[in-house]
Amino acid sequence: MQFGLRSDLVEAPTFVLRVYHYFKVKNPPEATLLNAFFLDDLARGSSLLTQGNSPTGLQRYLSVMKPTQKLDLLADRAALEKAVAPAMMPPLF
Question: Which domain range does residue 30 map to?
Answer without folding.
Answer: 7-87
